[in-house]
């Protein structure tokens, strides 16, 4: 698939979340998987109190709430105006940021990219990981998740079209390594409709 096709599918996915943001927020407003909680705690320990963290794809903001409660300073961002509005209604400030195109700023002590990479097409992934790595300070920590498996699919529902790309673990680890990101913690769990892998990687 061409990068232009991947971009078009990514834009369609964002539009789908614009339409479904309120329902998604209600559906996910509960205790997360234990592995996710442990991963968030591990990131907070790696970054340290007061550490500056960029969260890409903040969604309803539940993980940012948890990280802030752990003592981190979180810049919340999302590409979806729907999610920005949901968080705004909760009194949270969220910057609009497109992971496929926008400057990520930094250098950050930590980056959080949970439940986002599955919507990034294969033709865009190298650039995206490269810019994530460049936005981290040396020694900075990345918290990243992806759906384990092979292939990709397009799912359609009443609210939009969503691109889902799955990666085998060795493939993703190799891509991270190529950009100076070494994985040192890993969690694997069965989600509602996929097996998920969460890792913490540090920039060399």
Summarize the structure.
With 204 residues, the protein is of the alpha/beta class.
Q: Could you walk me through the main structural features you see in this protein, from its secondary elements to its overall organization?
A:
With 204 residues, this protein is an alpha/beta fold. It has one domain: 3-Layer(aba) Sandwich (Rossmann fold). The protein has six helices and nine strands; from the N terminus they run ααβαβαββαβββαββ. The strands form two sheets. The protein has a seven-stranded mixed sheet with strand order 3-2-1-4-5-9-8, with helices on both faces. The protein has a two-stranded antiparallel ribbon with strand order 6-7. A hairpin with a 2-residue loop joins strand 6 and strand 7. The longest helix is centred in the N-terminal third of the chain and has 26 residues, at 3-28.
What layout of secondary structure does this protein have?
Elements: H1 3-28, H2 34-47, E1 52-55, H3 62-69, E2 73-78, H4 81-89, E3 95-96, E4 108-113, H5 122-135, E5 136-147, E6 152-157, E7 160-165, H6 169-178, E8 181-190, E9 195-203
Parallel strand pairs: 1-2, 1-4, 2-3, 4-5
Antiparallel strand pairs: 5-9, 6-7, 8-9
Helix pairs in contact: 1-4
What attributes characterize this protein structure?
Rossmann fold; globular; alpha/beta; two-stranded antiparallel ribbon; 7-stranded mixed sheet
């Amino acid at each position: 698939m061409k990068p232009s096709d991947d971009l078009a599918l990514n834009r369609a996915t964002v539009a789908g979340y614009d339409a479904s943001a309120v329902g998604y927020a209600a559906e996910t407003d509960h205790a997360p998987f234990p592995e996710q909680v442990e991963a968030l705690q591990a990131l907070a320990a790696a970054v340290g109190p007061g550490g500056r963290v960029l969260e890409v794809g903040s969604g309803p903001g539940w993980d940012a709430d948890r990280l802030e409660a752990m003592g981190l300073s979180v810049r919340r961002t999302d590409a979806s105006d729907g999610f920005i509005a949901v968080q705004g209604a909760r009194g949270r400030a969220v910057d609009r940021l497109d992971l496929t195109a926008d400057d990520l700023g930094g250098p950050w002590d930590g980056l959080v990219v949970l439940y986002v990479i599955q919507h990034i097409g294969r033709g865009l992934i190298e650039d995206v990981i490269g810019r994530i790595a460049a936005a981290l300070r040396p020694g900075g920590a990345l918290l990243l998740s992806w759906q384990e498996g092979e292939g990709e699919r397009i799912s359609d529902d009443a609210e939009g079209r969503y691109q889902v790309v799955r990666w085998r673990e060795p493939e993703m680890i190799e891509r991270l390594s190529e950009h100076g990101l070494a994985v040192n913690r890993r969690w694997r769990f069965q989600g509602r409709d996929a097996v998920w892998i969460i890792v913490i990687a540090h920039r060399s």
